[in-house]
Every structure is written in C-alpha cells, then in structure tokens.
Specification:
The structure is a single chain. Helices cover 37% and strands 6% of the residues. A hairpin with a 5-residue loop joins strand 10 and strand 11. Helix 3 runs antiparallel to helix 5, helix 13 packs across helix 15 and helix 15 crosses helix 16. The longest helix has 19 residues.
C-alpha cells in the first residue's frame, strides 16, 4: 500500500456510467429494457408466491394498524393537525399517478416509488418520510403484504379515516426489486425543464410527446404554479385535460380527483427551499435513504418545505366534506406568493370560520390557498360546469371521487380475476376489460381436427393467433388473446392485423367454434398451435404445443373502443412490419414490444427465428425468411444468418440484400430487425446457440415454450 491516496481496487464497483459499453458506443442496441424480466435480483427466490402469502394475511389487523398510525404522531416527522392522512394520500396518489394509458407503464402495481428516479422526483419531496412511517407495519406483516399494496392501502384507509366511503380495495400488487428502467420519463436534462429547446417534451402547438402524460419530468401531473411556472388557469386547464386523458380519466373524473385530493391535507412551503438537502439518491450515506433534509432550520410541522406552495385548501383539512368547492366557487381569488416564493392564490375577504387553523397552534388561523390547477377548475367552462354540480351534490361528488380513486389506484392491475381480498367490489367495470369465462373440459382434439381440415393455411392459423395475443401488455395486464377482441372494433380494423385476411380467417374459425361449442378465443389459439405442430412435424420432430382452455369471448358492450385504441401496434418486428418510418429504429420498437409482452431477449430471439421460417411476415413479405423450406419449423434463420458464405448489403433505410460471396447473387432479403440478431453481440450469442447442429431440438422446444408463454400471458385464472 502507498500513502499517496492511490485507490487499492480496480473500480469493479464504479457506479458512474462513463465507462459502460453504451457510453462508448451509444448507437448500439441497449437490451437493458429486457433485463427487467430477469429474476436474479429478486431476494424472495423462485418458490415465493405472493398470492399464497396473502392468504395468510390478517387483513382486519393490518387495516386496524394503519388506522392507528393515522393519528399516532411522532416527533421526528409530526403529523399535520395530528393526522397523517394527507401525507399518506399523497404517497399513494403519486405512486398510482405515474400510470399512463399509452403503454400501460407506471402506476402503483410494482412499488416502483421506492426506487430512483421516482423516489427522488421534485414532486415526491418528503414522501420518503411517509414510507418510513409505514416501515414498522411492513416489518410486522413482512412477506404477507407487499410495499406496493401497503402504499395504496395506506392512502385508501386515510380517506376512510377522514370520512369518505371508499369504493373498495384489492390486494395483489407484487413488488419489484430494482427500478423499472424500461419506462421512458422524458428526454429533458433538468427535472423541471421549461417547454421549448433541446429535450422538450412539447412540440408544435403544445403537443405533448407520446407516451408521456406529465407536463414536466419530475412531476406527477402538471405544474401547480402554471404552465412552466407561469400562472394562467386556462392554459393550465389545457395541460390538465391532456395529462388526465393520458391517464385514462375523463373530465368528470379529473375534477373529482382534483377536488378529492385537495379536500384534505395541505401544501408545504413555509420556509426557504434552499435549506433542503439533496434528494434521496443524492443524499450522503449517513442520511440512510432520507432526502430533502433540512439541517438549517426546524423544517418540520408548520416549517415544512415540500412543493414550496403553502397552506391548506379547506378549513377542515382532516375531514371529507364539500368545502373545497364551496370556497373555490364562493370566493374571489387573487394571485400571491408563498413564503418559499411559489405562485398561489389567496381568497379575498375570507371569513374567519373559513380559515384553517395552524398545524401546530389551533389558536392561529391562516388563509386557505388554491393553486393554478385549482383555479382552472373554476375558470375552464367545462370544468366549471362539473365543479358546480359537485358543489350542489355532495353525495354525487363522494361517489364519483371514490370510483375515480379506485380506478386511479387499480387501473394497472388488469382484469378483476387478479384482485384479492374482502373489499374487492362486486361490480365489474368496463375499464377492467371484462371477459366472461369460457367453456372447459371439451374435446380439444376434435376441435383441432376440425381446424386441420378447414382449408386454412399454416400462415393463416399462426398469424391470426399471434395477432390476437401480441396485444398483451405486462405493464397493465391489458390485451391478449382472452376475449377474442381481435374480432371486435377497433382491433378488427387495425392495419397491422391485415383486415381482409383477418375477416376471411375469422369467418372459418367462428364457424368451427360455433359447431364445436367452444369459445372463439380458444379456437384462435388452438389454430395457431395446430399450425405450429404441423410445422414441427414437417421438420421431422414430434412435439405437442401445450394448451389451456377456458378463454371467453368478450362482447362489444364489454369493450371500451377508445381505451383499446392505444393498444394498436404501430410496428411488429415479429412479423417484420412497420406502419411507417419512425424516429426510433425498428429494432428498438421490437425491444419495446418484447418488454411489454413480458419476454426475455432469449425468448425474443427464438420467436423471431421461428416466425420467419413459418412465413408469418406481414403481407407475405419474404424479408428475413432465410429458408428454402418455408413452413417448416427449422433453425434455418439462424443457420443462414450466421453463415459466412454471405455478405450483407444495404439497399434502403430498412432493407438489405444477403448476397453469396462467390457468385454475387442475391439469396435473401432482410430488414434491420433480422440483421440485428447477427450484429448485436448479445443477440448473436443467442443466435449462434440456435444455429448449432446439435440444437435443432432445443430450438423447437424453446420456440414452443416462448409461443405458449405469449398465448397464455393473459390467462390469470
């Protein structure tokens, strides 16, 4: 050892990104989006079953403990007015509020709020304290309740403890153990970067980039001070409408949620924000995961600094009532600034009885406040109509909010069959994408025989099954083959489903389903399996594709057409199809689709190779069909991709010729999606496995396993 400060290690634990492969070669394909499927980070092990643990949970005792916590104030982080309700609601709200309908990502379903970047977003300041207040309860009940469930339950019980009759609650959210890196939160370089300039999420006439929902990275919804921090309620209303629509909320739900969130609790800005330390991910090690610590002034109670806005919205911030609309609509509000310098509104000529008391001294009364987003509920004509109706009908407000809160906190859980617990509502809601149970116990072989003699081609059968199942999103458990919604609007008209071909195939399969007394959904999947089994047999092998019966057929009345429109594929690398050219590459679109379907890089590789030789490309394209025996489930795609007797020559932005070295003759054509399995070092490693002479059986076995995973992804029962 030397004494000059030389580091004694080889920096194997260096956490900076400057020396990563992506830093050196930023244009290489980053497969990290697929590593979320890797279970090696899960400390619970493969045998852990959260559903089984939930069966052991003493739910009444857990709920009682959370109720007790609400008013069990602690000195290190005292409760406002002796009640943690507002803090717990904000924690649950901000966990669920990251959900966006475009790709189904975000939401409360994984407990992602525990990890960066969300745990350190400016909008989540001091929510680390809320989770620490819950830690003794999590420690007590352990594996029997996930953080994801506990966070949402705490917010729901907070409302109940303040007088709201909630709509219900479901357990069943399973924790993740590292950040959901596949979620794109925006390209800004600053948390609260204003619109315009490099990295802005807005273009044109304030067009928000898809799939984003929030108006700024680091915010859950919109800037409460106004667009880019400039107060203008009508402009803010436009941002609110876009943001909440992208969270699957209509205007009425938006107003109810805004009012319901601001009926209780308060905002905190009674001090200098410069006194706050760094967010949790940037805080020194001795803070032990706490962030935004204030070591300059008291920084708690009446002196707490969070958003910078200061004050309560109503005179009774620990009870559920209609005072939010009463104050909003009956008073005039003037623009002012908080002690922390944030824009907010205060009422003119406020009555003393409409002023909330100080959180620490009940002898002191303070003015209530409203944000720019609140004033938008009064100034926007449509929001104003809804606000007035809620003001006049407290029962209607309570019911609408309770349902909207339930939707907000459960939207990403998927269908009702995944729900668990005594408080699951009996009512089935259209946003849960209901599907009736289908028949079981029928003669599967008889149905398969009818399919075999139907005259449908192998491509017809496999392609239709794939197109039906590929809509599944593991992010919010929507889509998939169950329900056979491929035969309903909007899916039957999607360009990627080749409507004319689809109609022809469905006519045959629907007839078979009717004559066999089984669901169309099961028949579609069975047809795909029949096609694959035929291709396996043609390869000289004998493998039966596993099948689970019981899929049901949804009806048009069970289907929210507008909600399903966001599931339309704009690209499908598995069928070598792009609706149009996009700013991102086809292979990046393939990774996004693969991750949403819950597949690994290895599963993606084997599926691509199999789909190509089966001849399932969109429109019958031969791009990537590296075989002379199309329709045979062989490993030819990988054999020819890795064959050094060929060279690869670009012929367009997304097209290539595969040319024989000796003759110069074009043997095959390919897309970027095809060739990436030979160019990317990780994917090539998988491709080489399947190209080996001794892995023909492995290729078929792995393909069948991956195919079955896709077909059964939405079979939660």
């Amino acid at each position: 050892m030397t004494s000059n400060g030389t580091c004694p290690i080889a920096h194997g634990a260096n956490t900076e990104s400057s020396n990563t492969p992506m830093a050196w070669w930023p244009k290489s394909l980053n497969l990290d989006i697929l590593h979320q499927q890797d279970t090696k980070t899960n400390p619970m092990g493969p045998s852990f079953n959260y559903r089984e643990e939930l069966k052991k949970l003493d739910i009444p005792a857990l709920k009682k403990d959370i109720h007790t916590l609400m008013t069990a104030s602690q000195d290190w982080w005292p409760a406002d007015w002796g009640h943690y309700g507002g803090l717990m609601i904000r924690m649950a709200w901000h966990s669920a509020g990251t959900y966006r309908i475009a790709d189904g990502r975000g939401g409360a379903g994984t407990g992602n709020q525990r990890f960066a970047p969300i745990n350190s977003w400016p909008d989540n300041t001091n929510l680390d304290k809320a989770r620490r207040l819950l830690w003794p309860i999590k420690k007590k009940y352990g594996n029997k309740v996930s953080w994801a469930d506990l966070i949402v339950l705490a917010g729901t019980i907070a409302y109940e403890s303040m007088g709201l009759k909630t709509f219900g609650f479901s357990f069943g959210r399973e924790d993740i153990w590292h950040p959901e890196k596949e979620i794109y939160w925006g390209s800004e370089k600053e948390w609260l970067q204003k619109s315009g300039g490099e990295g802005s999420r807005y273009s044109g006439d304030r067009d928000l980039e898809n799939p984003l929902a929030a108006s700024m990275m680091g915010l859950i919804y919109v800037n409460p001070e106004g667009v880019d921090g400039n107060p203008d309620p009508l402009k803010t209303a436009q941002d609110i409408r876009v943001t909440f629509k992208r969270m699957a909320m209509n205007d009425e739900e938006t107003v109810a949620l805004t009012a319901g969130g601001h009926t209780v609790g308060k905002a905190h800005g009674n001090g200098n924000k410069a006194n706050l330390g760094p967010a949790p991910e940037g805080a020194p090690i001795e803070e032990q995961g706490f962030g935004w610590m204030n070591h300059q002034t008291r920084g708690i109670g009446r002196d707490t600094i969070t958003s910078g806005i200061e004050g309560a919205w109503t005179p009774h911030p620990t009870q559920w009532d209609n005072d939010y609309f009463r104050l909003l609509l009956s008073y005039d509000w003037q623009l002012t600034k908080s002690p922390a310098g944030a824009w907010q509104y205060e009422p003119i000529d406020i009555k003393e009885e409409d002023m909330p008391v100080d959180v620490g001294d009940p002898t002191i009364r303070l003015k209530p406040m409203m944000t720019d987003a609140d004033i938008a509920m009064k100034m926007d004509p449509e929001y104003r109509k809804i606000s007035e109706r809620f003001h006049q009908d407290q029962a209607y407000l309570s019911d609408t909010f309770a349902r909207a809160w339930f939707k907000l906190t459960h939207r990403d859980m998927g269908p009702k069959v995944r729900y668990f617990g005594p408080d699951v509502p009996k009512e089935e809601l259209i946003w849960q994408d209901p599907v009736p149970a289908g028949p079981k116990g029928y003669d599967i072989e008889a149905v398969k025989t009818a399919i075999r003699v139907s005259g449908l081609s192998l491509s017809d059968m496999v392609t239709t099954a794939w197109d039906s199942a590929r809509t599944f999103r593991g992010s919010d458990k929507r889509g998939g083959a169950n329900g056979a919604r491929i035969r309903l609007a909007p899916q039957l008209n999607w360009e990627g489903n080749e409507p004319e071909r689809l109609a022809r195939v469905l006519a045959t399969l629907e007839k078979i389903a009717k004559e066999s007394g089984v669901s169309i959904a099961d028949t579609i999947v069975l047809a795909g399996n029949v096609g694959i089994e035929q291709a396996i047999k043609a390869a000289g092998l004998q493998v039966t594709v596993p099948f689970i019966s019981g899929r049901g057929d949804a009806t048009a009345e069970m289907t929210d057409v507008e909600s399903f429109e966001v599931l339309e594929p704009l690209a499908d690398g598995y069928r070598n199809w792009l609706k149009q050219n996009y700013a991102v590459t086809p292979e990046e679109l393939l990774l996004d689709r693969t991750q949403l379907m819950g597949l690994t890089a290895q599963e993606m590789t084997v599926l691509i190779g199999g789909m190509r030789v089966l001849g399932n490309n969109y429109g019958g394209s031969k791009s990537g069909v590296f075989t002379d025996q199309e329709g045979v489930l062989s490993n030819d795609f990988f054999v020819n991709l890795t064959d050094m007797n060929y060279v690869w020559k670009p012929t367009g932005k997304n097209s290539y010729d595969i040319v024989e070295r000796n003759s110069g003759k074009t043997k095959w054509t390919a897309s970027r999606v095809d060739l990436v399995f030979g160019s990317n070092s990780i994917l090539r490693a998988y491709a080489e496995v399947y190209a080996q002479d001794d892995n023909k059986q492995k290729f078929v076995t792995d393909f069948v396993a991956a195919w079955t995973k896709v077909m059964n992804a939405d079979m939660f029962a």
